[in-house]
Structures are given as C-alpha cells and as structure tokens.
Amino acid sequence: MKIKDIGEFGLIERIHAKAGRSSYPVVIGIGDDASVLDVGPRNQIVTTTDMLVEGVHFLRDSIEPFDLGFKSHAVNLSDIAAMGAAPAQSFLSFGLPPDMEVETIDTFMDGFMEVGEGVPLSGGDTVSSPHGWIISVTVIGTSPAGRVLRRDSGVPGETIWLCGPVGDSAAGLSILLGQTTKVDEQGAQFLIKSHNRPLPQVRMGRILLEAGISNCAIDVSDGLLQDLGHICKRSKLGAELELESIPLSSPIKELASANGLDPYRWALRGGEDYSLLFTVKPENEKKLLRVLEKEEIAAVPIGRTVPGKGVRVFRDGSEVETGPDGGFDHFRERP
Ligand SMILES: [Mg+2]
C-alpha cells in the first residue's frame, strides 16, 4: 500500500498506532492541535511543530521571503492559539540550498519575528538541502495546569463561533495560481495578503481559556468543514452550520462574482486561514459578548453542536449538499 492510498490522516493514524497511548505526564498526545505535558502544579507545556516544503506548501517565486517567514511561524502560533495557550519560545530548523542569498534568510527572519510579537527564537538547526527549502518550526507555549482548549471537549447544545476570516486565503491562492481573474488591485492584494500573512488568533485563544468561556477549539488550517469535522469526530457529536452566518469579505465576494464562482466554496473548503473555531455553552455567551466588546475582537456565531455525527450545512433554513467534507489532505491524489 502506498501513502497516497491512505492519505495524510490515514498515515497519521498508522503512526499513532505505533506510538501507543499517551500516558502521564503527557496529557494530550497525537490528535489535537498541540500536545500537552504536565510539568507540575501550576503550568503545563503545550508544544506544536509544523513543516513547510518548497513545491508543496509554497512556490519560491510566488511568495516573498518576508511572507514565508511570517507564515511559517504564524501556522505554529495558530496551533498554540487553538489550545488557548500562551506562546513562550520558538525553534526553527532549515534545509537550505547552498546557493541561496543570505539576504533572503535575513528577510525571512524579519517576517518570522514580526508575527511572533516578542516570542523569542530559542534554537534550531540548519542543514544543506539539494532540492529546495525545507522549513520546520516548533513553538512551545504554556497554559495553567489542567486547562487547555481541546478538540474532544465539545458537547451538544453549544454555539459554534468563528474568530477570523474563512475563504480569503484560498481566494488569494486562486489569484496567485492564475485560476481566477482579479477584479481590482486592492481587493486582490487583500486576499493575497490573507494567504501569505495569516494572523494567528493567539489573543482570542488565551482569553477563551483564561475567562473560562470555552473548552473546545481548533484552528482552521485545512478548511472550515474539515476542521469542524475534526471537532465533531473527536467530541463524538454533530454540527449544523448556517451558511449566511459565515462572514465573507467584500474582496472575496467580488472575486467570486466576477469569476462566476460561489464564494462559500472557498469559505467552507479553502484552507490556510488560521482562524479560530470554538464552541460556547449557552450560559457563557453573555460573558463572551462582553469580552469581545471590551477587547475589540470580532467573532461571530455560525452554527451549533448537535447530537449525532458529521457537519450539516443550511442555507436559508434548507440543507445544502456539501459532499464529503474534504479540505486539504496531503498525499491524496487530487481529482
Ligand atoms: Mg491546527
């Protein structure tokens, strides 16, 4: 059997089976946005790692080194945000072609440090790579002992909230790949920036945890349907989304209409927005609304958790067909 036959998630399941079950002091092992380690009575350590490979995650000619540095750190910070943890330190390892200009790395580092907002780079490794860039980032964060936002902590009867955009990144990518024709330069730049410099929702994640507003969150890296599907699967529940509640930016609407496309396709299936998806019990909604207003953070309710399984999508009250909830799966062959 080939890796491409089982896909990314099938591969992870096989590796997970070899890894065995997590045991103390590992509170959460494989299967969430980050792993959690119990280190004593006050705090726990939250760790995530991610790899970007030239030709798979980015094309060297279509992303500026600054943006690449920004994004490679942002995607890891986003996983820390999805746990409600505070990022404490980062590690960066490179596989680099020897003929690369050193100034390229200088600029990469500027982007990497900018999105970190003060998170120190504390180590890493550099090796020579004959086939393009490989970038591996690890971010370590902390959270109060025994407390973290988990994918498996959702319960039926909660409201599903979204903090950050969905679809803009995929729409930006479609412009970069020449799959769509842009309407105006400003709108195109907005969408492309959403793709190249996604903003991790670190502050929202920390507030949700610290104020006890939510127990369950995931960051939208593979697409809204697929990532909500991860929560449903791990929490053993179903979800209902109201399409008209999902906010769309003006540029994505304009691009979709000019190209005869449905912008909700990007919003539901497009990946790499790094927004935060979380569930809130009815009794915590007021507290959430107060916090959002005070902290000036935009988040919106887009649906609810229900008994059962799978994600159902409704448009003006009637269910729409979404097919298998496919976001981005590495290794699977694209149709
Ligand atoms: Mg994640």
Quick overview of this protein structure:
With 335 residues, the chain is an alpha+beta fold.
Account of the 3D structure:
By secondary structure, this protein is an alpha+beta fold. The chain folds into 2 domains: 3-144, 60s Ribosomal Protein L30, Chain: A (2-Layer Sandwich), CATH 3.30.1330.10; 151-320, PurM-like C-terminal domain (Phosphoribosyl-aminoimidazole Synthetase, Chain A, domain 2). Helices cover 36% and strands 26% of the residues. It has 10 helices and 13 strands. Strands 8-10-7-11-9-12-13 form a 7-stranded mixed sheet. Strands 1-2-3-6-4-5 form a 6-stranded mixed sheet. Strand 2 and strand 3 (43-53) form a beta hairpin. The protein starts with a helix and ends in a 15-residue tail after the last strand. It binds magnesium ion (MG). Residues 33, 79, 82, 219, 221 line the site of magnesium ion (MG). Magnesium ion is lined by residues 33, 79, 82, 219, 221.
